[in-house]
Specification:
6 strands; two-stranded antiparallel sheet; mainly alpha; Serine Threonine Protein Phosphatase 5, Tetratricopeptide repeat; Dna Ligase, domain 1; single chain
C-alpha cells in the first residue's frame, strides 16, 4: 500500500513543525517560510538532514534565494551577462539540466555537414549515471532522427523506398556517430577544458566515497610507505603513483596524514594538469575533508597552503606558513614551500637555509630528492659549486636516474669546470630520459649544449640547440642572444614558442611579486593559444595586483569566453566588477555561472560578497549560508557571515563565525581584524584595542596597526590614532588603505589641506580607483569650494561612471554653482544607476525648487521619502515646496512629522515661520522665527530672519 511521504521540519531554534507532505513543504519554501537553514526528517522516524541537501527541495530553495535578488528562474531565459558597453560573447552551447548534478562533462550538439551528432563527454563523478545518461541522449537522437525522416517522406510511400530510406538514415546515423566519436577522441587527446595544450596534460584524481573493505593499520602503513617511496623520488611518474596510493588510503581508511601528503602531491603535479575547474575542485575537496577531520592541525593547514598556492595567492600561503613555523620550525613541508617562494624571489641564501632544514629533518633516509636538488641549485646560483656538486652526487647516489639532477650536474661540469665530455654525457642522459623536465632547466641544458657545439666549431648544430632552448623558455635571454648571433632574427622568428611554459614562467614571476613581468608572460601565452583560459585568468589577476582594474576585468572576460565552463573565471570576474561597484554586471556574471554549475559553492559566495558590498547584510547571510551548505569549511564564506552579522549588530553570531574562521586559519589577517571588531561589539572598545595591540606585539603588521588606528579614530581618540597611522606609514609609506584612513581622520578634524594631500597621494598609487578622488570632491564640497569639487567629481565619473553617488555629488556641486538644469540632469543619471536610493530624488527636488517648479519639487521630495529618506530634513524640504505650491495644510502636517523625529532641528521653526506668515498668523510666525534664531544663533541668514521679524511686528507683509 503506497503512502504519501511526509516530513518534519526543525528550525534553527529547535522547534519542530509537521508532518507536511512534499508539496506542502515546497509551498512553504516558495512563500519564504523556509530559507534553507532548517533541518528535515522523514516522518515518523527518519534521520535529520539539512533541508538543502534534499534534491527535491534544493531547486525550490535556490529559486527563493534568487528571488531575493531578482535573479529569476531558468525559464526567464539567459540574462545579459554584461551591459552593452562591456559585451561578453559567451558561447551558448552550455547544457543545463532541470535537476543538475555536479559534473565535469556536458552534452553538446555538434554539426557536421548539416548532420547533427550528439557528443557525450565523460561524467567522472558517477559512472553508472554517465552510462544511463549516454544512452538516453543517443536514444533521443535516434528518435529525433526517425521522427524527422518519417515526417519528411509522407504517408503513402512504396515499401522498397521505405527500406532504402531506412538504410540511408541508418548510414547517416552511423556516420554521425563515427564523427562524434572522432570529435570525442580529439577533445580527449588534444583539447583541454581550459584550452591549455601540451604534452601529456591530465586531471588530478580526487578521492571518492569510501570504497571496499576498510584497511587495517598494517595495510595503511604499507600503502603510505609505498606512497612516500614514490613521492621522495621526485619524478612526475612517481608523483602519479604516490597520488594513486594516497587516494586508496583515504578511500579505505580516511587517514589524516594521507591528506596532507596528497595535497603536496597535487602541488607537484599541478604544472602538468589542465588547471581547470576540475583540478581546482580536487584540491578544494581534499582540503575540505582534511579540515573536517581536524581544522586546526598541520595536515589541514598544509592543504590550505596548497589551495592558496594553486590559486596564485603566494603571499597568503607564505603568511600561513610563517605563522606555523614560528611555533613549530620542524614542519617539513612548510620549510620546503617557504624555500620555494624565496628561491623564486632570488633570495638564494634564505631559500637554501629552508631546504637544508628539510634535508636535516627528513627521516628516515633517503631524503626527498627535490629538497636535495633545490638546495644544490641554490648553491649553484650562489656559485658555491663545490657544495652544489656534493649534493647533486648524493641525490644521484640515492636516485641514480634523476634526470634534472643529471642535467644540473652537467651544467656545473661545463661551467665553470670546462669538463665538456662529462658535461655532455650528463646533460644528454637527462634530456633523453623519459622523465618530465621543467622547461627552464631544459632550456639551460640546450644553451649549454649549444655553447659546446660552438667550441667544437659546429655552428649548425649549435643553432639547433639554441633554438630548442629558446622554444622551451622564451624568457631565457642567453638563448635568445645565441639564436640571433648564430642565425639572425630570421632564425629567432622561426622558433615555435611553448605557451604552457610561458604560464609556468608567469607563475614564477607571481611568486616573486613581479606582477608586471607575470602579466606579460600570461598575455603572451594567451596570444599564442587563444583557448588558454587559465593564462587569460592569470593575466587578469596579475593586472589587478598592478591596480589596472579595467585591463584586469577585460582579461578575465577573455578567460570566460575562452572556456565558458571554467567557473573560477566567472567568480573572479564578478568579484572584480563588484569591487568597482558594478553590481548589476557582477550579478549577471554569477547568474551565467549558475547555468554552468548550480552546485559550486564559490558562485553563492560570490553572490554573498556582492550583497555584503551593497550593505544588504541579510542577503549576504542567505547566500553565504548556501555556500557553506555546499562547502562548510570555506573560510571566505565564513568571514562574509561574520561581517554581515557584525553589520546588522548580531554580535553573538558574528563572534561564532569569526571564531570559526580563526580555527581554520589563525594567521588570516582579515579574520583577526574582524574578530577584534566583534569583541568591541560584545565587550566594549577596550577589548578590541587590547586584541589588536596583542597582535601588533606578536606580528607587527601594518594591517593590525591600521585597524588599531581606525578603532581609535571611531572613539575620537585622535592623537592616538594619528600615532598609529604614522607608525603604519613608516613601515609602508605607499599603503593606500592607511593613506585613506589618515585622510579621513584629518577631514574629521577639519584639516582639509592635509586630508586632500593624503587622498591625492592614494589616488596616484591606484589611478583606477575612484574612491580617493570622490572623497577629495566631498572634501571640497564640505569646505564650500564648489568648482574644485566639480572638477574632482568629473574625474570620478571618467574613472568609474558606476561609482555610487558620483553623479549625485556632481549635481550638488553644480547646484551650488547655480547650474540648475545640469544638476537635474545629474540627478537623472544617478537614478539610472541607483534607482532605489533616495539621493537622486532629493537632488532633483532641490533643483526644481531653485527653478521655481514647486509641484515637481513636491513630487520628487515625496519620492525621496518613499525610497527611505525619512529624516526631519526630508519632511522640512517637502513642507517648503508644499507651502510654495499653496498646499499649506499638507505642509503643516509634514512639519509636525519632522518635529516628532527631531524637535530640536532649527529648520523646522524657520519653515514654520514662513508657513504661519503665509497663513496670516503673524504672532505665531514671529515666535517660530525667534525660536529658530535661539536654536541656531550663528545662522547664515540671521540678518534676513531678523528683518522678517521686524516687518511682521510692524504689521507689514
Amino acid at each position: 500500500m503506497n503512502k504519501t511521504v511526509q516530513w518534519l521540519i526543525r528550525n534553527k531554534d529547535g522547534r519542530v513543525d509537521g508532518p507536511f507532505t512534499t508539496q506542502e513543504v515546497l509551498r512553504k519554501i516558495h512563500t519564504g517560510m523556509y530559507m534553507g537553514e532548517e533541518f528535515i526528517s522523514r516522518f515518523p522516524a527518519g534521520r535529520w538532514h539539512p533541508i538543502s541537501r534534499r534534491e527535491e527541495f534544493f531547486d525550490a530553495l535556490l529559486e527563493t534565494l534568487e528571488g531575493e535578488m531578482g535573479l529569476g528562474g531558468e525559464d526567464d531565459g539567459p540574462p545579459p551577462a554584461f551591459e552593452e558597453d562591456t559585451p561578453l560573447d559567451v558561447p551558448h552551447e552550455v547544457h543545463v539540466e532541470e535537476n543538475p548534478t555536479p559534473k565535469v562533462g556536458k552534452a553538446v550538439a555538434e554539426t557536421f555537414g548539416g548532420k547533427t551528432a550528439i557528443v557525450i563527454e565523460e561524467e567522472l563523478e558517477d559512472p553508472k549515471r554517465k552510462k544511463k545518461k549516454g544512452r538516453a541522449v543517443v536514444d533521443e537522437a535516434v528518435r529525433s532522427s526517425k521522427k524527422k525522416t518519417s515526417s519528411s517522406q509522407g504517408s503513402k510511400v512504396e515499401p522498397k523506398l521505405k527500406k532504402r530510406s531506412k538504410r540511408s538514415n541508418r548510414a547517416k546515423l552511423q556516420w554521425a556517430i563515427f564523427a562524434a566519436v572522432c570529435l570525442i577522441l580529439y577533445l580527449v587527446i588534444f583539447k583541454s577544458p581550459t584550452g591549455r595544450t601540451g604534452e601529456n596534460l591530465f586531471h588530478l584524481r580526487r578521492p571518492t566515497a569510501y570504497r571496499g573493505e576498510p584497511m587495517t593499520k598494517q595495510q595503511v602503513s604499507r600503502t603510505m610507505g609505498r606512497a612516500i617511496v614514490h613521492f621522495r623520488k621526485d619524478t612526475l611518474e612517481d608523483y602519479i603513483k604516490a597520488q594513486d596510493a594516497l587516494i586508496e588510503v583515504i578511500e579505505k581508511s580516511n587517514y589524516l596524514k594521507a591528506y596532507s601528503l596528497l595535497c603536496m602531491t597535487y602541488r607537484e603535479l599541478w604544472p602538468y594538469t589542465y588547471q581547470d575547474g576540475d583540478d581546482y575542485r580536487a584540491v578544494e575537496i581534499v582540503l575540505g575533508r582534511a579540515q573536517k577531520l581536524n581544522p586546526k592541525g598541520e595536515d589541514s593547514a598544509t592543504c590550505l597552503v596548497v589551495n592558496q598556492w594553486v590559486n596564485g595567492r603566494y603571499d597568503d600561503a607564505l603568511r600561513i606558513m610563517d605563522t606555523y613555523l614560528n611555533e613549530r620550525p620542524e614542519l617539513i613541508f612548510f620549510n620546503q614551500m617557504t624555500g620555494d617562494i624565496y628561491a623564486s624571489r632570488k633570495e638564494y641564501d634564505h631559500a637554501a637555509n629552508y631546504f637544508a632544514r628539510v634535508r636535516e629533518l627528513w627521516q628516515p633516509p633517503p631524503v626527498w630528492s627535490k629538497t636535495l636538488l633545490q638546495e644544490a641549485r641554490m648553491y649553484r646560483k650562489r656559485q658555491s659549486f663545490g657544495n652544489a656538486i656534493k649534493l647533486y652526487r648524493r641525490l644521484l647516489k640515492d636516485n641514480p636516474g634523476h634526470a634534472v639532477a643529471l642535467i644540473e650536474l652537467g651544467l656545473i661540469e661545463f661551467d665553470p669546470n670546462q669538463e665538456i665530455e662529462k658535461a655532455q654525457g650528463h646533460i644528454r642522459s637527462g634530456l633523453i630520459s623519459d622523465q618530465s623536465i621543467p622547461k627552464s632547466i631544459e632550456s639551460e641544458a640546450y644553451v649549454a649544449l649549444a655553447k659546446m657545439d660552438v667550441l667544437k666549431g659546429d655552428r649548425r648544430q649549435a643553432l639547433k640547440h639554441a633554438q630548442k632552448a629558446f622554444s622551451a623558455d622564451s624568457s631565457n635571454q642567453e638563448a635568445r642572444e645565441l639564436v640571433v648571433g648564430l642565425g639572425g632574427l630570421k632564425a629567432l622568428n622561426a622558433v615555435t614558442i611553448d605557451n604552457v611554459n610561458m604560464v609556468y614562467i608567469g607563475e614564477q614571476y607571481m611568486k616573486m611579486g613581479n606582477y608586471a613581468a607575470a602579466q606579460a608572460e600570461f598575455r603572451a601565452a594567451f596570444e599564442a593559444n587563444k583557448d588558454n583560459a587559465f593564462a587569460a585568468l592569470r593575466a587578469g589577476q596579475a593586472l589587478w595586483r598592478l591596480n589596472q582594474s579595467n585591463d584586469a576585468i577585460a582579461w578575465v572576460k577573455k578567460s570566460v569566453i575562452a572556456d565558458p565552463n571554467f567557473v573560477n573565471s566567472y567568480i573572479i570576474l564578478a568579484d572584480y566588477m563588484s569591487a568597482r561597484y558594478d553590481y548589476v554586471n557582477a550579478i549577471a556574471t554569477l547568474k551565467q555561472a549558475l547555468k554552468v554549475n548550480r552546485h559550486h559553492h564559490g558562485i553563492y559566495r560570490g553572490f554573498a560578497l556582492v550583497e555584503l558590498r551593497r550593505r544588504n547584510f541579510d542577503g549576504a547571510i542567505r547566500f553565504a549560508k548556501k555556500a557553506l551548505d555546499l562547502y562548510d569549511t570555506d573560510i571566505e564564506s565564513i568571514l562574509i557571515m561574520a561581517k554581515a552579522y557584525l553589520g546588522i549588530g548580531d554580535y553573538e553570531e558574528a563572534f561564532q563565525f569569526s571564531q570559526r574562521a580563526l580555527e581554520l586559519d589563525s594567521s588570516n589577517e582579515d579574520a583577526q581584524v574582524t574578530y577584534a571588531r566583534v569583541l568591541i561589539g560584545l565587550q566594549g572598545t577596550q577589548a578590541g584595542i587590547d586584541r589588536l595591540k596583542a597582535l601588533i606585539a606578536s606580528f607587527d603588521k601594518v594591517v593590525y596597526i591600521r585597524a588599531l588606528g581606525e578603532v581609535l579614530m571611531d572613539e575620537e581618540r585622535f592623537s592616538e590614532a594619528i600615532q598609529a597611522f604614522n607608525e603604519a606609514l613608516s613601515k609602508d609609506p605607499k599603503n593606500k588603505p592607511t593613506l585613506m584612513a589618515f585622510a579621513k581622520l584629518m577631514q574629521r578634524q577639519k584639516e582639509y589641506s592635509g586630508a586632500r594631500d593624503f587622498f591625492l597621494e592614494a589616488a596616484a598609487i591606484d589611478p583606477s580607483d575612484a574612491e580617493p578622488l570622490f572623497l577629495t570632491g566631498k572634501l571640497y564640497l564640505e569646505s564650500d569650494q564648489q568648482a574644485f569639487a566639480l572638477q574632482q567629481f568629473n574625474r570620478v565619473i571618467d574613472v568609474n561612471p558606476k561609482y555610487p553617488l558620483a553623479h549625485y555629488y556632481t549635481g550638488r556641486a553644480m547646484l551650488g554653482m547655480g547650474q540648475k538644469e545640469k544638476a537635474l540632469a545629474m540627478a537623472i543619471e544617478e537614478r539610472k544607476i541607483n534607482p532605489d536610493i533616495p539621493e537622486s530624488y532629493s537632488l532633483a527636488a532641490d533643483a526644481y525648487y531653485e527653478m521655481g517648479q514647486y509641484s515637481m519639487c513636491v513630487k520628487e521630495n515625496q519620492n525621496a521619502i518613499n525610497k527611505g529618506r525619512t529624516t526631519a530634513d526630508a519632511y522640512i524640504a517637502l513642507a517648503r515646496c508644499q507651502r510654495l505650491s499653496g498646499a499649506l495644510d499638507a505642509a503643516e502636517t509634514m512639519l509636525d512629522q519632522a518635529s516628532k523625529l527631531e524637535s530640536g532641528n532649527p529648520n523646522i521653526y524657520k519653515e514654520l515661520g514662513a508657513l504661519y506668515h503665509a497663513q496670516g498668523s503673524r504672532d505665531k510666525a514671529v515666535e517660530a522665527y525667534e525660536r529658530y534664531l535661539l536654536l541656531n544663533p550663528q545662522a547664515k541668514d540671521r540678518l534676513s530672519i531678523k528683518n522678517a521679524i521686524r516687518t511682521l511686528e510692524s504689521g507689514g507683509k
